[in-house]
Amino acid sequence: MTESTKGNGFAIQTFSISRKFGNSIAVDGIDLSIKEGELFSLLGPNGAGKTTTIKMLCCLLRPSSGTATIMGHDIQKDPIAVKKVIDVSPQETAIAEHLNARENLSLMGGI
User: I want to staple 27 with a disulfide (CB 3.0 to 4.6 A). Which of 49, 67, 89, 96 is the partner?
Assistant: First the structure.
């Protein structure tokens, strides 16, 4: 993170973030600047790259190129700091039935 990205008023910024799977381009050079407090939605048909984009922003999947910052923290250089300031609720809730409630929360919290 550089001094210029700290406290610049943006919750999320992406800089030509892309992701390829083999020869298939899932996300192709997205540039976003979403201000703190702003509402934003990713909308599109199945296969448009919405989930891949979210996974990259959550540090669950590395971009093939480009990068992003979440509250000024670079997703590639400081993923631990990013995970401390985000919360993601998946569309489907999946729990491990063989785990108790505390173990499931611990498992999800580690993601």
Answer: 49
Write down the pTM of the prediction. Answer: 0.76
CA 60 to chain centre: 7
Model pLDDT for residues 61-89, shown as the tens digit of each residue:
999 999 999 999 999 999 999 999 998 76
**DSSP code of residue 75:** T
Give CB contacts under 8 A, 24+ apart, made by 48-55: 49/19, 52/19, 52/26, 52/27, 53/17, 53/19, 53/27, 54/88
Cα 99 from Cα 111, distance rounded (Å): 16
Domain 3-110 CATH assignment equals 3.40.190.10: no
Domain ranges of the chain: 3-110
* Tokens found for residue 7: 């406290």
Distance of CA 18 to the CA centre of its chain: 13
